[in-house]
Amino acid sequence: SGLPESIVAAACARSGQRVLHVDSRNYYGGNWASFSFSGLLSWIKENQQKTDISDECGDWRKLILENEEAIPLSKKDKTIQHVEDFCFDDQDSAEDVEEAGALSKLPIFGASGAEGLAQASEKESPPAESALAEAESQEPEKATGSEPASAMEGNDPEITSEKESSHSSALGESTLELGKAEAAPSEISAPEPKKITYSQIVREGRRFNIDLVSKLLYSRGLLIDLLIKSNVSRYAEFKNATRILAFREGKVEQVPCSRADVFNSRQLAMVEKRMLMKFLTFCLDYEQHPDEYQEYESSTFAQFLRTRKLTPSLQHFILHSIAMVSETDSSTLEGLQATKKFLQCLGRYGNTPFLFPLYGQGEIPQCFCRMCAVFGGIYCLRHPVQCLVVDKESGRCKAIVDHFGQRISANYFIVEDSYLSESTCTNVCYRQISRAVLISDQSVLNTDSEQQVSILTVPPVDPGKAAVCVIELCSSTMTCMKDTYLVHLTCPSTKTAREDLEPVVQKLFNLNTEKETEKEEQEKPRVFWAVYFNMRDSSGVEKNSYTGLPSNVYVCSGPDSALGNDCAVKQAETIFQEMFPGEDFCPAPPNPEDIIYDEEEIAAEESGFSNSLETKPESSTEECCSGDDSAVKK
Fold first, then answer.
1. Per-residue pLDDT tens digits for 112-162
2. pLDDT per residue over 250-281, tens digit each?
3. Residue 280's domain is classified under what CATH number?
4. Where does the RAE1/2 domain start and stop, copy by copy (predicted)?
5. Is residue 300 part of a domain?
6. CA within 20 to 30 Å of 384's CA: 36, 147, 296, 328, which one?
7. Strand, coil or helix: what is 581?
8. How far apart are the first and last CA of the chain?
9. CA 305, CA 118: separation in Å to the nearest integer?
10. Is 460 a member of any domain?
11. Using DSSP, how many helices (H) and how many strands (E) does the chain show?
12. Is 306 inside any structural domain?
């Protein structure tokens, strides 16, 4: 039930298809999931042990007929490797500590795994006309202590802040006050931060929503457009990424993004400000000026920047913090396209191009699962599948056999890559992603406001290695407890995750458990706990690379190493259009007021029941379109 599969399931259910969505895991999201702290510890233990899925139906091969053949599926998930976790605090003190009970206000689709869909029914959905949720920040004091506000989507992609009892005020796409409001210093002097211990983290474990994959949503990206179009965004809430950071000459600096940021920046000289604005203006419509870049099309973007009369600091900011492309591998055109995309996303919902879903990235697949369930899709967790059943004559897949020995027939089958056996993936060459998750006590760049969502790109030290993307989340994102920060590090793998990422962690953080440390180390954020792991990147694998798959079996990939989610959305739409050419992909559900009822059907209902004709259409409408909770509970 990862993101591509969940989008396909929602699209199929919305177009009137009957959908069965099964997952061998006991939580939603697959490798896109979010966990509480105790849930993540269980996930770590499970992946370190690598136990096989139990085979409850040993004689399932008897169900395969003479004119059929079986394609066995994998019993072991091999997408996660080299899992190593470390505690930099007194771990013994947490041995007898238990995680506190449920929070008073759980997320719409909480990160607690199998209970996620059930929890959805406990919270009333926003009105049907609402769409993209919260991008507007609250004051730090409000953000950490109360349920975050929602934002509503009207006919135009605008953000509307939902104050405590009002849904009225709106902010246009070009408004930049969101980012400014979040960055404003707190008027109340902050008290001394409390000392956090590992036992406290364990006790407050349900306040953590820790993503397996670290991504942000481009405000004009494909996923945001799909959330708005399908109205799935009403199931989620969002927060702006408040700042873009750069790591240069051993220091973390804030990168000016908007025009106002550039001219208010104290880091840049006036000449540099003019240089930067001139270059960014060129990037916005670079296609109109081919003579300025055509001779450098075969060069790297870094080489092209050196020809543009930019200072070294400006080249660094543009390459690593705006375009966010490789210094050695990205061409001039790729760099210009990435810079243009960054600039086009500025100002739509805030002062940076990015949004982050409250309660973690794992909310997004569950939102699409909910849409599928509302339109009749059936969900079964802890439900492994033994094999695909293929008809020898037609060569098409006709059924699956599950671990109970049931044969389930269908016309189309969508399989996540990790379910395929080694014999099917013999010719597939996978890439790997190196991931690390840290819990720290302060931000990598302290400011007056503690509630910052930051993205930082750390350039590679050695040639041939990739830059490391660092995303730092504060407690108002509902992903960590108060007075802590959740830090995600991601890069394409060259070695194990720890070998790839630990040098960057050591540059930015204090890992020393001893009290007597050097002054330079004491100024760095202190890490309480960390985990490193490698995740398979199956994006970009063509279907014909898999051996012996029937034409009506489609393969979805796991997460890729890119910052955005465009790959998953493109893949889901491609699969849907191949199955149902000409069908609209994830259209918005109809408003109850717009549903037209057949007069003969109403007359038949009237003859069978004694209640009046006036109340009957309203009752039917509520059952069809507002029955989210009953459908989800089933």
1. 333 333 333 333 333 333 334 443 333 333 333 333 333 333 333 433 333
2. 899 998 877 777 877 888 888 988 999 999 99
3. 1.10.405.10
4. 433-561
5. yes
6. 36
7. coil
8. 17
9. 52
10. no
11. 19, 24
12. yes
